[in-house]
Amino acid sequence: MRREDARLGQEPLRLVQFTRSFHIGGTEVQVLELLRGLPSSYQLQVSVLEDAGPLMSSVWKLGHAPEVFSLKGSLLQPNTLMQIHRMSRWLKSNRVQLVHVHDFYSSILAVPAAKLAGAKVIVGRLDLSHWQGKARRLLHAQMTRMADHVIANAEAIRQLLIHEEGLPESRISVIHNGLDLQRFDARAAEGLKDTLPDTGGVPTVIHVANMNHPVKRQEDVLLALAMLRHEGTKLNAWFVGDGPRRPALEKMAHELGVADGVHFLKHRTDVPAVYGQATFGVLCSTAEGMSNAVMEGMAAGLPMVVTRVGGNPDLVTDGERGLVVEPERPAQLAQAFRRLLANPQEARKMGRAARGFVARELSLEKMVRRHDALYRQVAGLPPG
Q1: Total Cβ atoms within 10 A of residue 62
Q2: 258 assigned to some structural domain
Q3: Is the pLDDT reported for residue 225 higher than 50?
Q4: Considering its fold, how many domains does the chain have in total?
Q5: Confidence class of residue 76 from pLDDT cuts 50, 70 and 90?
Q6: 342 and 232, same structural domain?
Q7: Residue limits of the Glycosyltransferase subfamily 4-like N-terminal domain (predicted)?
Q8: Are residues 93 and 199 both part of a single domain?
Q9: pLDDT, tens digit (0-9, with 9 covering 90-100), for 166-209
């Protein structure tokens, strides 16, 4: 996907991508795609808070040895100030012109360090800060205000920045996440890495999310399944993901009498292939940024049922690329499931539209191109 650049005679733009780590997650995957896709007119460097994660090997293969600025477990210690000054010196010595920081913890170091070093800094705001307490939200807002520019990956986040944090519209750009459709299709074509439960021909809804935080609301899917079961409608469910909440969710499935059709698949490395075996998908969170799980479900050609929160409405237009319901309304979820089950032709049409939207609007090429243009703008360079 890398495109060679012909900006001859120009010094390379010295850019640092700074993220917490390279564990498997939406943010980390997007950073990796930027490292792969930005043109050769960049001199790219990577910095992290933790030299960890299974994606780190991919970073090394691209020729990057991340510089580590460890918080050592807490922001509230002298080490934080030491790391800020250390990073500032590192940015100066490498003549870095621009830093793109992708998460809350990294921004605490990167924003003041960039200011001390005389470098420009872009803060990525990729969720609705729903997991942060009041003090952290205030601190994140302050770091964001200090930045030269802000990238939100969904319109809902842009609105939050404007109306709740008072950021000028001119300092915010919305750049949606990108998905490598060719790579996704190749992974799907590799097939399943492990067996799936036998559904006996019963339609299956798939939910892909961690089980770390109540925001994902797997409970609402279970309640919707119970409602359908009560009226005699058959629907199985696959929950892909794991976390400390799984035992309670398994217990709830038993208490609702739907455990025989509900399967907790834990973490899977073959998600594209699993999507291909499902009837439709669901993500019913109470807060979201730009969900990679929804994007991947759409890429698999599934109609997605999503809640009207965060970036979900950017992806799914109700009745066109899937169905949109209000959060924490399991009865609405059940009704959406019922509609897709009763109208398979309409469901397939929505799935085709979803796949087309991903190919047209959410390509990696488009995501990288928009970042490239913004980087050059913020750095004060002429357009490419």
Answers
A1: 12
A2: yes
A3: yes
A4: 2
A5: confident
A6: yes
A7: 24-183
A8: no
A9: 999 999 999 999 999 999 999 999 999 999 999 889 999 999 99
| Residue 287 structure tokens | 């807060």
- Hunting for tokens 């925001």 — which residue is that? 215
User: Mean per-residue pLDDT for 79-88?
Assistant: 96
Domain of 204, in residue numbers: 182-361
Provide the 3-class DSSP secondary structure of residue 221. Answer: helix
Is pLDDT at 1 greater than 80 in this prediction?
Answer: no
Q: Tokens 């997007």 map to which residue?
A: 30
The total number of residues shown for the chain amounts to: 384
In a domain, residue 324? The reply is yes
- Does 5 score more than 60 pLDDT? no
What's the rounded Cα separation, in Å, for the pair 76 and 219? 36
Report if residue 6 sits inside a domain: no
Q: For residue 3, which amino acid is it?
A: R
- What pTM, to 2 d.p., does this model score? 0.87
In the structure encoding, which two tokens stand for residue 352, read together? 């085709």
How far apart are alpha carbons 81 and 85 in whole angstroms? 6
Mean pLDDT of 349-353: 98
Q: What mean pLDDT is predicted for residues 335-339?
A: 98
Question: Do 132 and 192 belong to one domain?
Answer: no
Distance of alpha carbon 146 from alpha carbon 171, whole angstroms:
11
Query: Cα separation of 72 and 13, whole Å?
Result: 31
CB burial readout 63-73, b (16+ within 10 A) else e: ebebbebebee
Q: Is 225 found in the same domain as 307?
A: yes
From residue 78, give the alpha-carbon distance in Å to each of 44, 50, 51, 85: 29, 18, 21, 11
Cα(first)–Cα(last) distance of the chain, in Å?
A: 17
CA distance 228 to 215: 23
- If asked whether residues 157 and 214 sit together in one domain, one would say no
Say which CATH number the domain at 98 has.
Answer: 3.40.50.2000
- The candidate with the shortest Cα–Cα distance to 115, out of 151, 139, 142, 91, is 91
* Residues 162 and 42 both lie in one domain: yes
Same domain, 147 and 277: no
In whole angstroms, give the CA distance from residue 146 to residue 122.
10
* Contact yes or no for 117/14 (Cβ under 8 A): no
Whole-Å CA distances, 330 to 202, 282, 327, 359: 21, 12, 8, 31
